[in-house]
Amino acid sequence: MEVNSFLKDCPPFDTLSEEQRSWAVSQLQSVYMNEQNCNEILRDMRPALFIVRSGVFDLRGADGRLVERLENGDLFGYPSLLSGREVVNKLQTIEDGIVYVLPQSAFDRLRNVSRTFEQYFIRAHGQRLLTEQQGDDETGSDWSEQTIGSVVTMPPVSLPSDTSVQEAAKLMAKHGISSVLVVDDTQLVGILTDRDLRNRVVAEGLPLDIRVSAVMTQLPESVYENRSLMDALTTMTSSNIHHLPVVNDQNQPVGMVTATDLIRQQRSDPVFLISAIRKASSKSQLIEEAQKLPDYLQTFASRVKQTSMLGRLMASVTDGMTRQLIQLYEQEHGAAPAAYSWLAFGSQGREDQTLSSDQDNGLLLSNGLTDKQKDWFAGLGDYVCEGLNECGIPSCPGNIMASNPDCRGTIDQWKERFQGWVESPTPKALMYCQIFFDSRPVVGPGRFYQQYRSAIADLAKNEMFLGNLAILVNRISVPLGLFNRLRTEDTTDGDTIDIKRYGIALINDIARIYSLQAGITSPGTPARLSALKGSRLLNRQDNQSLLEAWQFLTQLRLNHQLKVWGSDKPKNAIDPDELSTLSRRQLKTAFKIIKEAQQGVGLKFSRQGY
Amino acid sequence: MAQWLQRLAHWYDRRQKLKQPWQNLRYVAVDIESTGLDPKKHQILSIAWMTIHPPVMHYGNAQYHVFSHGQELELGQSPTIHGLTEQDFLHSSEPKQTFGMLSRALNDAVLVCHHKGMDWRFLKYIESQYGTSFKPLAIFDTLAFEKKKLEKDPQQPIQGGQLTLSACRQRYNLPDYHAHHALTDTVACAELFLAQCYQARQKNERLLTF
């Protein structure tokens, strides 16, 4: 029957079993609601759950303020069902229509038989709607979210640092392993691999009784066992290593995860892609591999639930291409004449890159370079940026690229640039800040980059500058109309909403302002929000809401991009009419959260207030 | 003589009841799906009805019955048009009992249907076949109502297809339903009826016809 198929597409009724849903229909009443009878109906039939089938109604608070505009598929009346409190809201009919009414007794019975049904309303009541997933495909667990601990099965093989290399080699041979952890007093101090024995012992002709501590890699990169496989993957690719020690919360080693372990997870296509990129021995080969990226992402996306992972994956892949291009350049032009760092800015820096993101990068150079050395770096910038472009990462229209001399500088030169932006915040300067403050080193010594980054962080703690950023954030108005209705833009592709400009970018901007104020240097929005927990300026609940809104929007954008990939449809514009009822409700909630956060930033940082 | 008086009393009773405000009456929306238009030649495949107390439609006790007619069933049209499959006929209802229920439901209620000519003709035929009587207070024909409304504008002659249930519903911004399932059409007709009445009441139009 009609109403049954309607409910099938109307969360949370979609989660009920066929039988439960039919029962719900049998308990349902339906009313024709108009201006004359709507408040009478509300008075006579509550407490009940009301489901709008057609028409448009405004729910107004006791003070007449609009709470929500209700349309096809919207639910109301449940707060009083859950809390038992008297409802004071009033209805106003904008357009007559049909409204279904589920009485309290039936609502309670459904709550009892279905936990997901109950959970939905408790979440919706607490504005926790955004973490709700479309409840159809729960098939298979998401490998990238699997914890590292769950794939590390072998107990760690370890030895103290005063062991001789021969003893170490015997131990490795006995266990048939290619690397061993070096542990002193339960703490991980190093890692020794086959390669170290070959390159640092045998090739150098060192005696076999030399201590492991002399040839091991000290303080290696490691991951916590409770992190995800994706974390392991990104750490491996960013440090260009195959063996990754796994430690527990007390930093005690619990095992080792290798690239082979990840590949053994069978479904880890991205590992193949990343290792293929690393193996590319010529530019043309690299470009060929890079062209497979959209296909990889397409199949990968269908298997992961948390698609914000894909932003990190894209960034990892771009990092990999960058490193490979740098290596290819070095093969032709000799090794770098001085220490330097290749910087990723913007979305690559934040690791929320998409298939349509363009390049944002630069170079951090040592002091006192000769002209010839500078030419080497200029050549590197040209070569890598051109190469990335050929690999499908488009050049930056704003020329924020290492090929631009302005984007190559020493720490002092960069500081000077930032200082200029912070002190005279022209619109262009502020726009630069929204890109350049989100940075990450792709290549180069960590300490060199940290020195640069903390110098920049100090510059940002400038009240007037933060105030100006807050004003800028408030200039963009969230696409919610007067009545909390989604406001679309009339484009050639229909009525759409740009969820990057009006959603994701705004949350990035908001998280950046709080982070700059707190001196947090991590570039990604989820990492920033996580670091901001406990901040006095941003309370825990608003923080969580922002994260959920960000995750929802990035997911929505990715799904959209995968759908329109290869067509000339806009990559960030969503048509709300094409969304499911749940997604549409979530989109509204996300924009409501952003709107409030915008105002919060305005009040806290800009004297003018908004 | 006594019978005549009884009729008069019944008529008077009906008249009094119909004088009430329209929202105080009980309505029963009915839809019949059949193999054709002629009750003598064609058979009822399914029937549905639902009680309305304006503005409330009672989904819970809506009735839907399918008849198998033993071996005699002749599908004049493809049965899929009515959304019926063989499976449905396995759960078919007993006609006399079903029509008895409908008869009781229609007592003291106004019958609502889209195109009275067709549904009423079948009900009349049932009366003669099964000895059940259908005595609604009145009949509200959503199609006739719509036709009259459209005829008020002589500039705009009524086009074919303008009076179908779904075309009428569209003019009242009611949602699109898949037509030709007796229960769905009953609900569709009930909603159209309420939309017509509530919107007409604002203009003080006369609603009921006898």
Explained architecture:
The complex is a heterodimer of chains A (610) and B (210). Chain A is α+β, with helices and mostly antiparallel strands and 610 residues long. Chain A folds into four domains: 125 residues, Jelly Rolls, CATH 2.60.120; 104 residues, Roll (CBS-domain), CATH 3.10.580.10; 166 residues, Beta Polymerase, domain 2 (2-Layer Sandwich); 139 residues, Four Helix Bundle (Hemerythrin (Met), subunit A), CATH 1.20.120. Chain A is built from 25 helices and 21 strands. In chain A, helix 10 runs parallel beside helix 15 and helix 21 runs antiparallel to helix 22. The longest helix of chain A is centred in the middle third of the chain and has 26 residues. The radius of gyration of chain A is 28 Å and the shape is globular. Chain B is of the alpha/beta class. Chain B has one domain: 2-Layer Sandwich (Nucleotidyltransferase, domain 5). Chain B is 41% helix and 17% strand. Chain B has seven helices and six strands. In chain B, strands 1, 2, 3, 4, 5 and 6 form a six-stranded mixed beta sheet that branches. In chain B, strand 2 and strand 3 form a beta hairpin. In chain B, helix 6 runs parallel beside helix 7. The longest helix of chain B is centred in the last third of the chain and has 20 residues. The two termini of chain B are 25 Å apart. The interface between A and B is medium-sized, with 26 and 24 residues.
